[in-house]
């Protein structure tokens, strides 16, 4: 493969051959290794063993963001490799070293937390060579705050930021309308999927964030301060090439990442993704269903035998040496290697969400009846093959959150949000005037409670089981995975869906902001980056408590008093129904690359669609 010359256009777009997936993986990935001309862009030769291949899973079949480099555009996503372009003032790793200064040195709040001063690192440059300064950060904060609700974080920043300016090129000052001691951690720090992407003022000034695409290959757009640039991009593949002039290397702040080229292709289906992993054609997978990940890594295949990597077992060509009893399949690993849970707990606990504007789902009594109808023990046993964990609250089972979750544990006696209770279902439904029809489904005035649930293919194990459990208790439920599932949710064309909560990792505040009224008032509003706030639920009492929480620093004991107040309202109304903890069953290949995160090397979560992915790229080393 290393010496092959071919055209990515012909390989990524032709129909699959007899092996079933050349159009997306086998042929397309081969294109990364040779000099080619694609979309008018000449690509240099990069050998396979210096190229990282990933299959994105957020979009099925084709990228939906092609030609959108502006991270605040409605159609934008960093899931398709763009996390390699953007860098934050600080990173945060919940499983590793915590806060990591990056574009900034340090920060300080005023005594009353109404002003934040951040000292930036000298020598940082944008991808076009222009200096990165405090003006860029101040411009981004004010531009986002002045944008419509369709722009992520806009309503949160509008409520908090009074002014932002550069005291000098390397000193940022942010002034707040009220104490905001959490602001830097919540918005200027990359953790999992959240954090503000800082924009180059010299490009974006005078443009609307909601619709400027920031894409012009001739001008080198898009670019960030990160160590990669978009070399070529269609709706079926994307090449990101490492920048030799990256500021971090030039300033001797950090070494260049290992991969010289990253090739991203859209998700086809789980079987094709698994096939690509076993053939060594894909190095890093989108999260898989548990059974697929388990089958790929093999129960008991344990990278711990060689200190967490298998690089000593490979010949120079990147294939297993004869006599080592290793195969390409055995070079595959998850975060927990070949041990349960075949991955790691994600920060994204799953719920059954509703458009709470739509009757009868606007009635909390009905939402509670649906919650009582779900046997989460069976949902885990059947849908997750026993390797799951029910959740009563919209929070990940992270150690840092345990004291806060414990502070509301007693409330679950009154609001048992993961209890299976068929009698409660009947009691509540009958009190609302519903009766079982001739087919056994709940109906009122001749109209059934229809529950068409949509979701992503990664929940192909969970969704059908959830729908069947609801049908057993009288709800006319179904589960579907349409290609536009997320767009339906965002634009108010979905009634119910499976989704997570991308928010809290160290205390409970940020998850609650997803449900704040300022983030649920508008069609298509998207709070908290990946979190989403599409239930359209709001409550003034809840908002008041969350506003108070916003004035409490991270780690302050007052949060233990405020959190139960907020959850009393949330649990009373139950805007969505908590289901299970989310697990990342991501498979990583050690045929060409080693240095992946794991239980033995827990420096960060491994997901390539998270904003912390550059921390993984820095650690990856080629096998040869």
Task: Give the arrangement of secondary structure elements.
Layout: H1 8-13, H2 26-30, E1 36-38, E2 41-43, E3 51-60, E4 90-93, E5 98-101, E6 104-109, E7 115-120, H3 134-145, H4 154-160, E8 161-168, E9 171-176, H5 183-187, E10 189-190, H6 201-204, E11 228-233, E12 238-242, H7 247-250, E13 261-267, H8 270-278, E14 284-285, H9 290-297, E15 332-333, E16 344-345, E17 350-354, H10 364-372, H11 376-383, H12 402-407, H13 422-431, E18 435-436, E19 442-444, E20 447-448, E21 450-454, H14 463-472, E22 476-480, H15 485-490, E23 496-499, H16 509-513, H17 540-549, H18 559-573, E24 576-580, E25 583-584, E26 588-589, E27 593-594, H19 613-619, E28 621-622
Parallel strand pairs: 3-13, 3-14, 4-10, 21-22, 21-23
Antiparallel strand pairs: 1-2, 4-5, 6-7, 7-9, 8-9, 11-12, 12-13, 15-26, 16-25, 17-23, 17-24, 18-19, 19-20, 27-28
Helix pairs in contact: 3-4, 10-13, 11-14, 17-18
Give structural notes.
This protein is an alpha+beta fold. The protein is built from 19 helices and 28 strands. The protein has a five-stranded mixed β-sheet, with helices on one face. A five-stranded mixed β-sheet has the order 22-21-23-17-24. Strand 6 and strand 7 form a beta hairpin. Helix 3 crosses helix 4, helix 10 packs antiparallel against helix 13 and helix 17 runs antiparallel to helix 18. The protein is globular, with a radius of gyration of 24 Å. The protein starts with 7 loop residues before the first helix and ends with a strand. The relative contact order is 0.15. The N terminus is likely disordered.
């Amino acid at each position: 493969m290393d010496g092959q010359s071919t055209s990515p256009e012909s390989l990524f777009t032709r129909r699959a051959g007899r092996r079933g997936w050349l159009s997306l993986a086998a042929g397309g990935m081969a294109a990364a290794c040779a000099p080619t001309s694609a979309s008018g862009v000449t690509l240099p030769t990069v050998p396979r063993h210096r190229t990282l291949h990933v299959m994105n899973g957020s979009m099925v079949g084709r990228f939906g963001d092609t030609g959108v480099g502006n991270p605040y555009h409605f159609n934008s996503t960093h899931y398709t490799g763009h996390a390699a372009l953007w860098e934050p003032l600080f990173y945060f790793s919940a499983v590793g070293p915590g806060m990591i200064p990056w574009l900034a040195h340090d920060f300080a709040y005023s005594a009353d937390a109404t002003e934040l001063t951040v000292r930036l690192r000298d020598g940082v440059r944008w991808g076009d060579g222009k200096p990165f300064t405090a003006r860029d950060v101040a411009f981004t904060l004010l531009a986002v705050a002045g944008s419509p609700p369709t722009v992520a974080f806009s309503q949160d920043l509008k409520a908090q930021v009074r002014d932002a300016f550069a005291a000098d090129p390397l000193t940022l000052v942010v002034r707040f309308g009220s104490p905001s001691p959490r602001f830097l951690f919540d918005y200027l720090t990359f953790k999992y999927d959240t954090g503000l992407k800082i924009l180059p003022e010299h490009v974006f000034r005078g443009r609307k964030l909601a619709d400027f695409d920031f894409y012009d290959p001739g001008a080198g757009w898009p670019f960030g301060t990160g160590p990669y640039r978009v070399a070529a991009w269609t709706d079926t593949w994307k090449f990101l090439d490492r920048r030799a002039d990256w500021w971090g290397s030039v300033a001797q702040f950090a070494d260049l990442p290992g991969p010289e080229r990253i090739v991203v292709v859209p998700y086809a289906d789980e079987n094709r993704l698994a096939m690509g992993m076993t053939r060594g054609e894909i190095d890093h997978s989108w999260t898989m269903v548990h059974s697929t990940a388990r089958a790929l890594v093999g129960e008991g295949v344990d990278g711990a035998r060689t200190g967490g990597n298998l690089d000593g077992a490979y010949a120079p060509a990147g294939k297993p040496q004869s006599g080592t009893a290793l195969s390409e399949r055995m070079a595959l690993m998850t975060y927990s290697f070949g041990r349960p849970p075949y991955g790691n707990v994600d920060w994204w606990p799953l719920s059954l969400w509703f458009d709470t504007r739509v009757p009868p789902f606007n009635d909390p009594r009905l939402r509670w009846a649906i919650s009582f109808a779900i046997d989460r023990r069976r949902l885990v046993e059947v849908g997750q093959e026993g390797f799951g964990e029910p959740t009563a609250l919209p929070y990940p089972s992270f150690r840092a959150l345990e004291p806060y979750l414990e502070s509301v544990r007693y409330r679950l006696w009154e609001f048992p949000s993961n209890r299976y209770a068929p009698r409660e279902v009947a009691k509540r439904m009958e009190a609302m005037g519903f009766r079982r029809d001739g087919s056994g489904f709940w109906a009122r005035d001749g109209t059934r409670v229809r529950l068409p649930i949509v979701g992503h293919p990664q929940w192909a194990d969970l969704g059908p089981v959830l729908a069947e459990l609801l049908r057993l208790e009288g709800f006319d439920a179904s589960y579907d995975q349409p290609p536009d599932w997320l767009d339906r949710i965002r634009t108010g064309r979905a009634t119910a869906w499976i989704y997570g909560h991308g928010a809290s990792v160290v205390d409970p505040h940020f998850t609650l902001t997803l449900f704040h009224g300022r983030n649920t008032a508008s069609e298509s509003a998207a709070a908290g980056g990946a979190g989403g706030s599409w239930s359209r639920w709001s409550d003034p009492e809840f908002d008041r408590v969350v506003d108070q929480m916003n004035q409490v620093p991270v780690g302050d004991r007052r949060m233990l008093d405020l959190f139960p107040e907020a959850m009393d309202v949330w649990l009373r109304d139950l805007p969505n129904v908590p289901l299970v903890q989310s697990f990342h069953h991501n498979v990583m290949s050690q045929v060409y690359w080693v240095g992946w995160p794991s239980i033995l090397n827990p420096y960060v979560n491994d997901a390539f669609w998270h904003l912390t992915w550059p921390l993984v790229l820095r650690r990856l080393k080629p096998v040869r």
